[in-house]
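Folds abound. Consider this:
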Amino acid sequence: MRRIPGWLALLLCLLLAGCGSDGDNGRDGADGTNGVDGSDGADGAAQVVSLRPVAATASQGFDQSAAEIVTFDAVNRRVLVVNADSGQVDVFNAASLSDLNDADPATRIDLAAMLVSAGKATEAGLVGAANSIALQGELTAIAVEAMPKTNPGWVVFIHPTTLAYINAVQVGALPDMVTFTPDGSRVVVANEGEPDEGYVNDPAGSVSIIRLADYSVTEVDFSDFNAGAPRHAELPVDKMVLDGYNATVAQSLEPEYVSVSADSATAYVTLQENNAIAVIDLAAGTVKKILGLGFKDHSIPGNELDISQKDGVNIRNWPVMGIYMPDAITSYHHNGRTFLVTANEGDSREDWLNGLSRDACEGAGYFYAADDGICVDEFSAKDYYDSDNVMLVNSEGNPLFPTNGGFGGDDALRRLKFSYHTTVAMNGGTEFEKLYAYGARSFSIWEAETGLQVFDSGNDFERITALIYGADFNNDNAANAGDDRSDNKGPEAEAVTLGVINGHTYAFIALERMGGIMVYDVSNPYAPAYVQYINQRDVTVDDVETDLDQVGDLGPEGLHFVSATDSPGGKPLLLVGNEVSGTTAVYEIDLTLLEQ
């Protein structure tokens, strides 16, 4: 496998913003995977941390969503991994790190069988994928969707030690993420409420709050924000996306991921497809507000990106706005204030639009591809526009690019996939001044009370991976074809978690497509510092699926930080669930103190 030599990692660290920071106030030992807010930590000495791969489980299936969300049971020394499409949880013994290397699961928990046995489902065929797992105290909670996914799903509770069934609670449609509040009194669930294909059925997105004292459920919906409802005017429509087909606001909003404040009072829920964050009062069971995230201007120096998969490394400014659309979110404290950290993946409704008629498609503001007979939002000039039909112009009406209808050739905007619906809406028609593309190819930090962005990693992810891999950067996660994802969300930041090491707070960000982990010292949210990029993937392997044992880890989906206190080896760990390779990887985190 291709690994980054230590000397190169150190050189990159020095060139690309320094190793570590002066470490104002870090987070004191909270579990970032579950999105739990932490208290202020002490100032740390100048230091360097570095991830070192030490183990990886055997593959549980190539491109089968077989290793997604991962958590760690410190008491029983187990790693639990959601094996999504199988509807199971894989349990690995981890008395020592060597126990995990090339290991198969010691136990598999069949959630459908468990629900049927408990009388919560009448047959296994009505139970769908397992999507998320969290552990706290004497409870493990697992989010399980129904079959079909538009029906209400469940949160299944099992005992961490015996792995025996305790209870199951019905929640909203497509429960996608589950987490405990820090005080252990509640479980919070993001119910995405995705539509089925063709929008035959589109359930409302919601947030379920489960009170663990009696397993009672409060469902928080967004109906008060519908047109004509009392809170509709509160929506920051200029900073978010509301594009569900023939949908109310409540149907259009799709909760994805949850982080809970340190005092267990507030949940912050990403609404990924909507480019927004919902703030939930957990005691009252109400929506406090919805924060629109706005758009990232890729024409500004520092925000460059590569927009074509046919031009090698060509990272530069373009008239493109990135729609942040974060997937994972976590949070921490700095000087008594809460900050949110997001992985800005981007997502579209493309999978659900197929089947709409031309009139329905165009009437909703999407593009109907007549040759293919499908409704689309993921749009590129290469695929759909004749050169005479559109012109990309500036505010004075002059073409930004003089050839191919203003989009340029294969080394310009002709190939970039962007949101047709959002671009038309924001430009007021099809004479586009700027394109609106999915995701921001970055991670961001936001002030929780106001939604103000205090940091974005800009072009770091593409720039750093291009420095290491050259034209092999921006790979897809299921094939080695360099530059392949440049036209479509680039490296695609998927997951983020936080960990505190010696008084410094570190953010670990997984790049779903290119693979690997970015590490930043975020002790001061206003001045994060790049620390390391590590990727256990060999981009020279031709046949990824056949030579899976050689190519390494593919498609990181879930992250979990393990403190030194809880680690079998006495050093902090980062666990990574790799969805495409079906492997769970373990990184040990080394700490080096620097002389002052």
Remarks:
- The chain has two domains: 6-347+439-492+499-505+520-593, 358-436.
- The first strand starts at residue 47 and ends at 56.
- The two ends are 36 Å apart (CA to CA).
